[in-house]
Design goal:
Largest sheet: 3 strands, mixed
Number of helices: 6
Radius of gyration: 20 Å
CATH class: Alpha Beta
CATH architecture: 2-Layer Sandwich
Helix content: 55-70%
Number of strands: 3
CATH superfamily: DnaA, N-terminal domain
Order of helices and strands: HHHEEHHEH
Amino acid sequence: MSKTRTPHALQQILPGVLEGMRSTARPSQEGIESIWKRLVGEEAAQHSWPQRLIQGKLLVEVENSGWMYTLSLRKMQLLQGLIELLGAGRVKALVFRIGERKDAQREDKKGEKGA
């Protein structure tokens, strides 16, 4: 005997399917940077930048120890925001380290100072 399933309207099924796809898709670097900027604010985003998300750990480089300390004070709040915006299980830890931004935007700012 075969079971017959009750048909469901696409509008009832589609939201769940899309949510499932969103939760399994890896977020883009641009998406992570946008979320980071939204969470920390404009000023802090100029002095910190997410590098990579690997196995639930988001590595964020900061300009100096002062920014590392400032962001570390907000670590749990930032982690909760990342979890809410990226999805449960996507981010489990937030790690800060001192580093140097390597993108063109950083180079442009250095060039402006020397002019």
